[in-house]
Specification:
159 residues, alpha/beta, Alpha/beta knot, rRNA (pseudouridine-N3-)-methyltransferase activity, Ribosomal RNA large subunit methyltransferase H, methyltransferase, rRNA processing, S-adenosyl-L-methionine
Amino acid sequence: MNITLITVGKIKEKYLREAIAEYKKRLSRYCKLDIIELQDEKTPDNASAKDEEIIKNKEGQLILKYIKDNMHVVALDLKGKMLSSEELSGFIKDLGVKGESNIAFLIGGSLGLSESVLNRANYRLCFSKMTFPHQLFRVMLLEQIYRGFRIMKGEPYHK
């Protein structure tokens, strides 16, 4: 299975880079993982709704360049469906059974994902109604993907 994370923004904090590297190492037993970091657009403090839409669209165009036709695209979106860890594991397993072995998870910038990116998504996933920093969220997503593979393989993992 091939998992691609397409994310807007760079990881600045060393401890988060180390956590990402750890989960990347752990996941190497289960899948091929690629992480594509895209430059985020700077959002002025007093940006209008129109300015924010322009910024989301610019970031969205960058994201769309990296999505291949054979990818099953999962957009991380506050309006998406919430799944338990077991359900996420089943979701990934079902895609593999159906022959959809290229999954792309999309994490937008601070303003979220553009409408064009959301329209390209095959699935919209929400982790929580709470808002998380996208740098921390990348670690959370990798941990849940790792947990999902452990569940799928019947291997022990903390509940």
